[in-house]
Amino acid sequence: MEVSKMNRDYKKLWWVLACVLVVSSLAFAQAGRGKGRLSGNVVDEKGEPIVTAEVKIEFEKGGLVDKTTVNKKGEWSFISLGTGLAIVTASAEEFLDNSLSVQVQQLERNKFVTLVLKEDKEKKIRLKDAGALEELEKGNQLFQERKFDEALLIFQTFAAENSKVYQIYFNIGDVYREKGEFDKANEQYAIAQTMAKEKADVVLQARALASFGEICLRQEKFKEAQQFFT
User: Fold this and answer.
1) Residue 120 gets which letter from DSSP?
2) Where are the alpha helices (DSSP H) in the chain?
3) Using one digit for the tens of pLDDT, what is the confidence trace for 8-56?
4) pTM for the full model?
5) I want to staple 185 with a disulfide (CB 3.0 to 4.6 A). Which of 53, 146, 153, 177 is the partner?
């Protein structure tokens, strides 16, 4: 009788342990770990792979959080995933992040996930502006050091890339003035003056007149200079 009772107790114990293991396995799988596999790629709006992208997966109800980088084809994959709703997010420099909700399965093959990233145009503009301003400051420093040819190259490059920033034509004109190339200087001041009139910028219109007057003074054309200062 005692042996029989002990056997029944052992069977109950093993049954309880088995249930605990099953529940634990299910909980572990639900938390994100299991036999599921999820793969996909990251592309831009033209369908070209973004090889610098990083992909993150996070299960909605907590649990697994993992990251990976794409390969040379822009492809990525996660293995040993459990069942559940996951948020997959792709990110890359100069692009806006993009996230998708994906139902991950273990017993069925999961669909290939394509994450399309849009170009972060505003960030590119900010970076371009910051770089351009640094170059402009460098050009101004070279001008102060009387390295006019080097300064001129920087100012001309800036003007080519930022043609609507008409203040730059004063910088170019000033370089030509200091080099003694007065006709070229006046041409640049005239461009700045015309654009300032279009923008109704009276301050820079006045600066253009003063610049014309300065050229006259350099050429000792004192009577002509008077019209620009009155």
Assistant:
1) -
2) 2-30, 121-144, 148-161, 168-178, 182-198, 202-218, 222-229
3) 554 554 454 444 444 444 444 444 567 889 999 999 999 999 999 999 9
4) 0.47
5) 177
